[in-house]
Write a structure and sequence with these properties.
By secondary structure, the protein is an alpha+beta fold. It folds into two domains: 156 residues, Ribosomal Protein S5, domain 2, CATH 3.30.230; 144 residues, Alpha-Beta Plaits (2-Layer Sandwich). The chain contains nine helices and 14 strands. The strands form three sheets. A six-stranded mixed beta sheet has the order 6-5-7-4-1-14. It has a four-stranded antiparallel beta sheet with strand order 2-3-8-9. A four-stranded antiparallel beta sheet has the order 11-12-10-13. Helix 6 runs antiparallel to helix 7 and helix 8 packs antiparallel against helix 9. The N and C termini lie close together (6 Å). The model has no long low-confidence stretch (mean pLDDT 96). It binds ligand 2P0.
Amino acid sequence: MTTALAHPNIALVKYWGKQSKAGNMPATPNLSITLSELSAVTTISDSDHFQFHLNGKQVDDPKVSALMSTMTDTFNLPPLHIDSTNNFPTSAGLASSAAGFAALVTGIDAHCNLGMDAALRSEWARRGSASAARSICGGFVALVPPDWQAQSLAPIDHWSLEVVVAITSHGAKGVSSTEGMERSRLTSPFYNQWLRSAGDDYAEASGAIATRDFAKLAEVAELSCLKMHSLMLTSSPTLSYWTPASIACMDRIRALRAQGEAVFFTVDAGPQIKAVCLPESRVAVAQALSEVPGVLEILCCPLGEGARIIDD
Ligand code: 2P0
């Protein structure tokens, strides 16, 4: 029996749209920070048939089944029992699939002695869910061509950013990211412009991280997020993952920044708001967001490590 743990990651330069060739590769370079506190813990054990349990219930997850089938063929794996538990809401825009696939591949690699390095684990995690490629690494992480295997841009101690997550709904999302990004690729009139501008956003954000330029990172990360949500809104049929409370949180974060707090927002394919801040602003940001009507819960996460084995 082998147990692996991985954290979700939050993209600061977003992935929204795939390349058409096989391998589940993003169409654009993207960049993230890995969170601590939130985690997927996945236990792999031998079994007489394949079974997948998520949060205590047996489920038939087509993405997990497809990845397991390819890995079984490639590595001649025995039947495995997989038990995965998240300590945070699943399928609600908190990157549960990123943490889940990173923990799954890390656990299988160790349990079956496949001898993968981090780059190869990242590639296999990406085949499950592209954002999962990034959760293999900790701190500041890039997912870029030509290999589309995540690389560490900087370790956790490079810059002590923190993330205050405002939960505005505990429900699962109605349209999956996979389906939503394909809809945007096919129908949003802004999709080609998104492809053209992503390289510049990536270069600007990675430069801002290298020089710890918070104002620059805030500008480019909020723009990348809002461009992605513009693609969603201009898809046909339209996609909107926000609640009124999500919008109120974004307004509150802009107001906090105008008052001098070092904070910016990012939002994924769900209604939760992630406020990225410097440690000295965390208390004020958490307090302010907790007072926004419709905010149900506040989570505070420093940066986290990459996927790892916690019991073997
Ligand atoms: C990201 N998201 O960069 C973006 C921002 C959601 C919004 O990556 O189809 O679950 O499994 O590769 O990785 C979520 O998409 O999609 C995602 P698949 P995934 O974090």
